[in-house]
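pasting Transposase for the record, 301 residues
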Amino acid sequence: MERARNISEFDTSQLWEEYSMIRLCVVHQGRALPLCWRVIKHRSSSVEMSSYQDMLKRASKLLPVNVKVVLLADRAFANPELVRYVWELKWQCRIRIKGNFWIYAPKHGWQTVKQLHLRLGEAKLIHNVKVHKTESKRLTDVHIAAAWESGSREYWYILSTEPTTLQTFWEYGLRFDIEENFLDDKSNGFDLESSRLRSAPAISRLCFVIALTTLFLTAQGLAVADSGYRRLVDPHWFRGLSYLKIGWNWIHTAITKNWAFLPFYSFTSYLDSHPAIASRRKHLQKLFRIEFYASTLDYAS
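structre below
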């Protein structure tokens, strides 16, 4: 039986094109809960590993020791140093890579992943791959999931430290929860960018307040949904708002109408048994939109 799993997302967000906020979050039911972060004065979303290595080390001490940690990261973090450090922390990872990423094919030598010649709707699951032409950066025994998605016609290349399956694409898709978390920080919630703070330590302390508030509101939203009161603040037949927004609406209404705050809720799983649905039709379109015909290759054989 597989150990309990913790899906962690790693990304950066720019503030005023002057500061970069590096954040590690834990996936929880359609949103990302902030775990640790660092704010640096940096004009680019691409940051060196020295800027976040200590943060990952601290995070490893905050997470339970008896769970399997899977780190999700975008193309800006596709470097061998991060993969090696993930192994050192005894984590796993799923990292999106660019089309010009080099892999070694036994019959063809070095080639880029975009030279895999995918057909529309095809996925190739490649195991035990050697990557990086530069010997000092080279990694062995990693795995690739590559696909050309027929709906958006977008290419997807995922580097994994575990053998890939079609499930790998779904796991990587959870990374977009952190985009919603950044949106909650900004225009969809706390309006962080309206702050007049222009000091990395001060912004980091403000992010701490936002993180605590995110936890509090999300816990309230989960408690509201679990208690059967959701439609008092989210009138959709199915859940239409995030748990954070449900909690936000509940607290606002509780203050104006003298309702009680609900007991806190335990964060138990990254899986959401009641996902937010804008409409049944759109939900079914999304649910059955992506299909692949897959082939598996083992470059070690």
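The CA atoms of residues 253 and 259 lie 7 Å apart.
Residues 197-262+272-286 form one domain.
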